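Risk mitigation, structural track. In case the binding assays with flavin-adenine dinucleotide fail to produce interpretable data, a predicted complex structure has been prepared as a fallback.
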Amino acid sequence: MKHVIVGNGPAGMTAALTIRAARPEDAVTVVTADEGAYYSKVREPDLVAGKVDAATLELAGESAIRQAGIDLMAGVAVRFLDCGARRLFLEDGRELSYDRLLLATGASPVVPPVPGLCPPSGEPAPDTPAGTRGRGAGHPLPAGVFALRTLQDARRLARAAGSARGAVVVGGGFIGVHVAWALAMRGLRVTLIEKMPTLLPGACDPEASALIAGHLERSGIRVMLNTELEALESGGDDLKVRAGGGAIPCQLVVLAVGVRPNLALARQAGADVGEGVITDGTLATTVPDLWAAGDVAQTLDLATGKQAMLPLWPLAVAQGRVAGRNMAGLRSYYRGGLRVNAVHLGPLQVISVGDVFPSGPSARVLTTSGAWGRVSAVPVPWGRFPGQPGAPGFTPVYGRIAFQDDRPVGALLVGRVEAAGILANLIARAIHLSRTDDAVRLLRSVLRVALPARL
Ligand SMILES: Cc1cc2nc3c(=O)[nH]c(=O)nc-3n(C[C@H](O)[C@H](O)[C@H](O)COP(=O)(O)OP(=O)(O)OC[C@H]3O[C@@H](n4cnc5c(N)ncnc54)[C@H](O)[C@@H]3O)c2cc1C
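Fallback model:
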């Protein structure tokens, strides 16, 4: 039996190793447009910050992968997939046959369609994997503009940060905030622009956003909310970012406005595609002998009970394991995953879990103020903070827990995050708290660990 896996990220590598362990007699080939080593994308901002070197990010080198019995074809993209003939066509002219195929092609950063970034037609860049061939198939990003996905991206950005004085980070999500912090820690003058009214949209309410923005501002990062990127102008050594009606001069721009799954091969295969590749509980697609896992796949969100895109490292690993086991003929099910995002901004940690903004008549939130209310019944007062901004040892603290009826479905913790694991467990296991009193009592005991604020 011949297994082929496209992609050497956590989904692809976990699947490859799972198949090897389960069926040592089978052939396993991994094809990737990226470099051959298996590395941590999660730690790329640390490389940009100069906290670690590239070797620290390596989880398994090419030789270790080959020693594990995996045939690794690195630095070459799959250009076409013919599922009828069970053949893959590589960009260098080679062809590969397979019996079972996994698409673990991940996602690529979105490039906003604004003048100076996209081709004059305004067409979005085609679906091309981030990798050795650059991004956007013939529409590379202008000099000084970066989007962080591959290790090569991180190395290039770290190098550019060494000589730049000012940077603009576009996008105030988890990656954008983390990169802004990393660049500021290297001494750059950083402006962070976010088109939504809060930082970490989808995870942060206005209270938490204000707290995080205050922390960033006190650390020298200018935060501009409700500010959309309008255009990028290049001229001489400097770039000019047009946003919010003004112009910000800088030498370096980082795009962090989200990712889009690499769906081209799945579409060629004729697999059903929604936002991502549609999979069943075994991570099989709608095409025989074709599986999908990781950022490219649409899977069950345990917080909402709906299919969703959850582009997260631990979920890619879990999905790779399930897909690999099924490809090896062992029955295995993926029960779904939780959206968990975290960022460490020096002394300030932020973690969000699950669905922080549930909707509908049974949705309620509990914040550090201790106020119960319908989701629409904002604003709620802030928690009480132990100390003042700027005082030694001051850590701002904020907590929000969201419910559907009596079931916790989401949590946001800022400043003290020790309770995140307990809350994630309650959410993932869909624990019902039968009475409001029980919920409040439980949350008091959980939050007391995390929050000194009175409930
Ligand atoms: C800067 C950064 C920080 C992050 N931080 C976190 C975090 O804190 N926590 C967290 O949970 N997640 C984080 N993530 C997300 C996490 O890294 C991804 O969810 C995870 O890597 C997805 O794994 P994957 O295997 O699905 O895809 P990827 O890791 O994207 O791997 C896909 C591979 O497929 C290859 N490929 C695609 N198309 C083709 C083709 N046609 N031919 C050949 N090869 C192809 C690509 O080159 C790539 O190597 C972060 C991501 C980034 C970029």
